[in-house]
Amino acid sequence: MSLLEGKNIVVMGVANDRSIAWAIAQSLASQGAKLVFTYENERVEERVRKLVNTIPDAVMLPCNVTVDEDIEKLAGSLKEHFGALHGIVHSIAFARTEELEGLFVNTSRDGFALAHDISAYSLVAVAQKLYPLMTEGGSIMTMTYLGAERAMKNYNVMGVAKAALEASVRYLANDLGQFNIRVNAISAGPIRTLAAKGIKDFNSILKTVEEKAPLRRTTETAEVGDTAMFLMSNLSRGITGEVIYVDSGYHIVGV
Ligand code: NAD
Question: InterPro entries under this entry (predicted)?
Fold first, then answer.
């Protein structure tokens, strides 16, 4: 049985083969989904193209989520390509490296605004322009982290942006439920990716998870990919506004 046969899904946030979005795309493709990929800019275009070319019939389109016209163009291209859209995978975040170390109290005004624009508002902007294409119902998902609810060393402004993202998931879910569109987040354990490189002392975070998480191991991108596939599929039809943890159980453990 292919769980995503006939589903048209846009995957936003592949930068390289370590990207969580890439693992998600592979899980979605394995269940028969038709995929469109978006990429941030020319800097990542060639790398993304090599990956996308390995998935039959997949296409790629540019979309910098800080640019409204890019998102509007994306909506037009998806309408042309797919007609109806069934799924959106939002796996995008950014904060300046200097805001991901030291004290949160030193966060600058523009660093705060930039992190929130790319990491939280972009979900709202994308949902706003693309939900009208979800004429047969749909599923929207994004990626978050435990730093949204706990003050974690060096995660700083990104934690605050993730809190805004998780609240946005609930508000969007409440708005779009009437159109049979669900909105959820996956809270993944730490995974070594390009984005994670910006976080100071990332290795020690991985080590703590290995020691303390109930499953005594770190999270693999494929585990996130398969949960995303569940969220895109009809199997999760009763779930919306939720944050699902794929973190080897780390978030349940006391100090
Ligand atoms: P990644 O660097 O592979 O992915 C981040 C993506 O964001 C990249 O593809 C980048 O091009 C894109 N992006 C940044 N600014 C953009 C913009 N203006 N327009 C369009 N795209 C833009 O790293 P990742 O770890 O796969 O991150 C994906 C998501 O998962 C992020 O939301 C991240 O916060 C979240 N997450 C990561 C971890 C982890 O430990 N790696 C844990 C929990 C959640």
Answer: Enoyl-ACP_Rdtase_NADH (IPR014358), NAD(P)-bd_dom_sf (IPR036291), SDR_fam (IPR002347)
Within 10 angstroms of residue 42's Cβ, the number of other Cβ atoms is 8
Residue 65 lies in a domain: yes
CATH number at residue 149: 3.40.50.720
Q: Judge if the beta carbon of residue 143 lies within 6 A of ligand 1.
A: yes
Cβ(159) – ligand 1 distance below 6 Å: no
CA 1 to ligand 1 centroid distance, Å: 31
The verdict on ipTM greater than 0.95 is: yes
Q: Which residue from 42, 153, 38, 52 is spatially nearest to 92, judged by alpha carbons?
A: 38
What single letter denotes the amino acid at residue 165? L
**Model pTM?**
0.98
Residue 97 CB burial class (10 angstroms; 0-12, 13-18, ≥19): exposed
Does a structural domain hold residue 254? no
Structural domain range at position 131? 8-246
Ligand 1 pocket, residue 8 CB under 6 Å = no
Is 251 inside a domain boundary? no
Counting from 1 in the atom list of ligand 1, the atom nearest the Cα of 162 is 34
pLDDT in tens, the chain (255 residues): 799 999 999 999 999 999 999 999 999 999 999 999 999 999 999 999 999 999 999 999 999 999 999 999 999 999 999 999 999 999 999 999 999 999 999 999 999 999 999 999 999 999 999 999 999 999 999 999 999 999 999 999 999 999 999 999 999 999 999 999 999 999 999 999 999 988 888 999 999 999 999 999 999 999 999 999 999 999 999 999 999 999 999 999 997
> How many whole angstroms from 92 Cα to the centroid of ligand 1?
4
Sole residue written with tokens 């080590």: 207
Number of domains in the chain: 1
User: 96 lies in a domain?
Assistant: yes
Catalytic amino acids?
A: 145, 155
